Amino acid sequence: MKIEGLLVIIPCGQGKVWDNEPNRGPTPARDTYTGTPFKVNRKYAEHFADHWVILSAKYGFIQPEFMIPGSYNVTFERGSTNPVKMATLREQIRAQALASFDKVVCLGGKEYRYAVHDAFDDFKKEVCFPFAGLQQGKAMQAINRAIQADNPFLVLKDRSEPRVGKGS
Q1: Residue 163 CB: number of other CB atoms within 10 A?
Q2: Going along 74-168, which residue ranges are E strands?
Q3: Of the N and C termini of the chain, which has fewer Cβ atoms inside 10 Å?
Q4: Chain segment 35-92, per-residue pLDDT in tens
Q5: Number of domains present in the structure of the chain
Q6: What is the pTM of this model?
Q7: Which CATH number belongs to the domain containing residue 9 in this structure?
């Protein structure tokens, strides 16, 4: 069920098509990342979101059709990889009108959640992190259950409220 006015932000992934196809040329972002977490997050985004974007530590907020020229290894977890700057993320939010959505949901690990929270903070936009705090395997299970139940905020039984904010 698509939810009108819902933006879902999903993290990119470490595994990329060039890992198995080194001679492959530029590829749309939606098809670039090959890991299971990305595939599960993409399925959630496509199932529920009116609109979705990928947060790449190299390119920032990118549309699924954005062409990735080739492999890269940049992460928010290691500053030495030179991740995208917060000012760039904020400018992308403005340029892509990402703060205009009624509800913003972010999936992914804490570094990506921190980046999204901080980037949207200037826009006074509440961002929901419904699966925050779950280990990756548990998060993937919870996301799959949410899709099956057609409820974007269905989480484990011991967590009834979506998590909101940086500390989530």
Answers
A1: 17
A2: 103-106, 127-129, 163-164
A3: N
A4: 999 999 999 999 999 899 999 999 999 999 999 999 999 999 999 999 999 999 999 9
A5: 1
A6: 0.91
A7: 3.40.50
Sole residue written with tokens 């949207």: 120
> Given the DSSP bridges, would you call strands 60-62 and 49-56 parallel, antiparallel or unpaired?
antiparallel
CB 112 within 8 A of CB 61: no
Task: Name the residue type at position 68.
Answer: I
Give which of 21, 38, 18 is closest to 30, Cα–Cα.
38
112 and 60 in contact (C-beta within 8 Å)? Answer: no
Cβ–Cβ under 8 Å, residues 164 and 128 = yes
Cβ neighbour number for residue 77 with a 10 Å cutoff? 12
Q: State which amino acid sits at residue 43.
A: K
Instruction: Write out the residue range of the structural domain in which residue 52 sits.
Output: 3-164
